[in-house]
Amino acid sequence: MTEKELLILDGHLSEYSYVGGYLPTQADFVLLKSGHIPSDPPHSLPSVRRWAAHMASFSASELEALPQLKDGCKIDEQLSNLVKNNLNMEKKEAPKNAGEQKKGAQNSKGKSGKFVLKTPKGTRDYNPAEMAVRRKVFNTIYSVFHMHGAVEIETPVFELKEVLTGKYGEDSKLIYDLEDQGGEILSLRYDLTVPFARYVAMNKITNIKRYHVARVYRRDNPAMTRGRYREFYQCDFDIAGQYEAMLPDAECVQLVHQVLSKLDLGEYTIKINHRKILDGVFGACGVPAEKFRPICSAVDKLDKSPWEEVRKEMVDEKGLDPSVADTIGEYVKLSGREELIEKLENDERLKGSAAAQAGFADLKLLFEYSKALGCDTYLVFDMGLARGLDYYTGVIYEAVLKAGQEGGEEGTVGSVAGGGRYDQLVGMFDPKKKTVPCVGVSFGIERLFAIQERKDKAQTDKIRATQTEVFVASACKGMLMERLKLLGTLHTAGIKAESSYKNNPKLLNQLQYAEDNGIPMVVLIGESEVQEGVVKVRNTSSREEVTVKRDELTTVIKQRLTVNL
Amino acid sequence: MTEKELLILDGHLSEYSYVGGYLPTQADFVLLKSGHIPSDPPHSLPSVRRWAAHMASFSASELEALPQLKDGCKIDEQLSNLVKNNLNMEKKEAPKNAGEQKKGAQNSKGKSGKFVLKTPKGTRDYNPAEMAVRRKVFNTIYSVFHMHGAVEIETPVFELKEVLTGKYGEDSKLIYDLEDQGGEILSLRYDLTVPFARYVAMNKITNIKRYHVARVYRRDNPAMTRGRYREFYQCDFDIAGQYEAMLPDAECVQLVHQVLSKLDLGEYTIKINHRKILDGVFGACGVPAEKFRPICSAVDKLDKSPWEEVRKEMVDEKGLDPSVADTIGEYVKLSGREELIEKLENDERLKGSAAAQAGFADLKLLFEYSKALGCDTYLVFDMGLARGLDYYTGVIYEAVLKAGQEGGEEGTVGSVAGGGRYDQLVGMFDPKKKTVPCVGVSFGIERLFAIQERKDKAQTDKIRATQTEVFVASACKGMLMERLKLLGTLHTAGIKAESSYKNNPKLLNQLQYAEDNGIPMVVLIGESEVQEGVVKVRNTSSREEVTVKRDELTTVIKQRLTVNL
Question: Distance (Å, rounded) from C-alpha B84 to C-alpha B91?
């Protein structure tokens, strides 16, 4: 099977438990023995991994007895052809004995039909090693948030459906609804920005600088192999309040720079633009006002598609005059720094646009403030940056990691943070339309996790999933109660300590466990140590051992931990 | 209005936006001007608070123009009577001018109908001060989890519906289902234990010690004033694996003790019992085997109801012979320690019960191990402890704070943690029914938050919602760029620093801000300081000021922070 075919299979198995749908069939068996599936499939194929692990639980006779793949089974055409063509299914599937086959089918249906061992489509579990990476990334980001005096809030995972209605444009179809079980009509949150605006309006807050890190839900077609899921973390920092122009905006840009520099995941630039500049350009080029948002949404695709395609969308789909599109094309390909702003301020078409001029004034201030804050060198004024969401009203920005750094992603330039100013959203929730101006940034945290994970794997010092400092081991039999007493003593002193759950574990196994799990110290007891009221403290990496009195043990351990830190 | 009536109103407003349903009516106006609602309703009435804040946004003329409360409006009978009786609604609601009234109604319906400013029933937002308390409690608990070498995992917020089916008995009706939007049928998780068992089975894990802290969902009738919500945190620690009897169980009990002692929220005991002992008692007393679980579930109510009511449930609802119930009553009121175990081991009825004897042997071991671990004095063997869930198979435990400590809750003895052994749950997910024995504990974290909050409020040192260390202030105009430069310098050195968003903030306001927010230091600049290349560093509490050279600033600040810590 080609890599692409494996990806198709993985996508299928992300929705279905088995090749043939929700029940195991001969199709699974055939695929299994075809040799096309690696015995330990790569982590980039999580659903194939899940399937392979699950199939390994069937005995040979159970596999033989699986029912045929029937036409009624849920299997999409692409995969069906793939299975048939690659594996000569039809030949192998001919039943030897119809009666026997049927019996087997019933058995395995009755039995295996119950065990749909998978997570919902577009979601996944996170194992301890992955969680350790996440905690590390989160803690770095939190430390920067705290640097700015931000506070934390939390909102429910679902909102009244009408809170979300009319906020996301076309994407509203991706909202997860809860079943109407009598009562309110609810939907899972789609992002953290709309709940934040609802929170600010509901509590009549006039100013707040808050962060919120939580999972959001989108019924998108998941591209899980590229790290895109239906359930994923967002990590938002926003400043609400009526303040001096561009000061909170500059702080957001500074914060993006601080997070990315602290995470140390490679070189990055922060692209900036302004919705008023885009509107000014559209107006000056002759775009009718009602087409501003659709054309803006077309420009947004410039980071993924070439200009020709974007132009085609403008002209063919959105009915823009080709010459107008061409004029827009002249502008959106521009990028630079302050000198570009100055040039465009005097541009013949834009001179008369109040919107564009207001945008230029803002960006000049942003450059000035960024210089004082020490992050201006990361800024690029990119006229092609548009940002997808409708609610932005002012400055917009997006941080991208420079190409060729992410390893394996063939030079993709990855967007890892984005945001902007949205001054009208809170007003949409206020009965009197009273609004609170806001500006904020959202980190593409799942992408940052993935990059951090690759970075950690490339380095030798792997992240430990536990924090255990001491392993309590025994050199001979009958030491269980002594080990428990030591655990009690160490824990009371605040020292992280584990021991074996076996009554009489083997010494070598215990030392090996400490080594495998990176536990820096072993406290070792045998009969003579107990009699003499001492223990041995062993350094796991140097294997050096010292004898310590029981009542000095916690002091010694703490000293050693401090020295090592 | 009586306190009880206010509670009914709060319950109503937790589901509906307004007194009359989803639209504002004269009923809201009448209630507002009745004087029955305090201008700043207590936090124990969150929905009344939300409603009062929202109503304050209506102008007098808008209130006058609100439509009448119609019969079709959603208002439950109890509240309707309450409103009518207490507030003489009918008299006041007579329209003066039908035409005007109608116009007003349409306007406000068209306008206010959009703004349902509330969170879904049974849920709430958490503000920064509340989040700070949560972080503090979580961090304490995490530190104990790490003490035991536990790893963290994460699972999706929803599962395939069939994963949850058949695990919760009667409570299954409380599961939140997602709408069938084509694709898989999904439900929000009801607890963290079933997803954990699914995770262990799906990944063929033979042993793991993991914690998982996340929110779970139950469509229960929320008693929000008593801190019970439909969306709430669970905080679980579980040990899966085939180990020496009672060693992981003793570790769980020890961990409960460690968490509660570290949180320091008052005296507590850990009640223990064993499902096999309960089954042994039921068998010996003559309960038919098929009634073991229903009778166990009745015993579970003993912590909330007197024996007479529990007996009534056994006899009237569950058809138990009254004399059998009476015999059970003799046992379930017993509590004690090792001596009770020894006594019961030789009890005439229980002598012959293999189940009960196995349970006694386990508990004896548990006492012995707890002694070595230093937490046996907190244990009480309580024959009336049953735990609600069906899946427990061995030792069960529950930690309760002693009565009269929680302040305001009239001596309620609060359960703050509970758990036990469940050896068969993983097997329910394995195609071959292969199981992995598990034991675990879940902390009643929402209750712990509430108690911690009360404790913090009672103390003078309030928890800060931010961690800011330095406030950068200016003594005169035109210092904005200098302040930004200082922020850049301080942040680069890893110091948490904020400044005003105003171009020219007043000095006194800046110093006041630092004081109000508990920011320990202020860095102060004026024209002369800039000229001389120095700053003033001011201690917020002592108000003492020293002059420091710009290039020594971060060193000085760091020293002062270290000294204060």
Answer: 9
